[in-house]
């Protein structure tokens, strides 16, 4: 029904070019506020991943202790040449 009766449409003040109207100012504030939200969320993601990277680096640094040698027992082992006795 609407397609059968075409009428001309008028552009709003922001689209038509009147940039000093209240509608254009409101639209600009809306764009800037949404842009601020996007920047804030992306900043939070970046901060979180920087935190994870620093935490992983700190954990890796504390885990780099030299390996502790096991205590040797008083019993001779097969790897000690001076304690091996060959029984014939």
Helix content: 40-55%
Number of strands: 0
Number of helices: 2
Q: What is the chain-wise order of helices and strands?
A: HH
Mean pLDDT: 78
Structural class: mainly alpha
How many angstroms does the end-to-end distance come to? Answer: 114 Å
**Low-pLDDT residue spans:** none
Radius of gyration: 38 Å
Overall morphology: rod-shaped
Largest sheet: none
Question: SSE layout and pairings?
Answer:
Layout (H helix, E strand, L loop, with lengths): L12 H4 L5 H41 L26
Note the main attributes of this structure.
rod-shaped, 0% strand, mainly alpha
Question: How would you characterize this protein structure?
Answer:
The chain has 88 residues and is mostly helical. The chain has a domain at 18-62. It has two helices and no strands. The chain has helices at 13-16, 22-62. It is rod-shaped. It starts with 12 loop residues before the first helix and ends in a 26-residue tail after the last helix. The mean pLDDT is 78.
């Amino acid at each position: 029904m609407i397609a059968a009766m075409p009428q001309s449409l008028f552009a709003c003040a922001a689209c038509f070019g009147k940039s000093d109207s209240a509608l254009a100012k409101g639209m600009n504030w809306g764009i800037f506020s949404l842009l601020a939200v996007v920047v804030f969320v992306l900043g939070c993601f970046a901060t979180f991943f920087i935190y994870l990277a620093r935490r992983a680096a700190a954990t890796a640094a504390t885990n780099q202790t030299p390996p502790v040698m096991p205590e040797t027992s008083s019993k001779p082992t097969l790897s000690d040449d001076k304690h091996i006795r060959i029984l014939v």
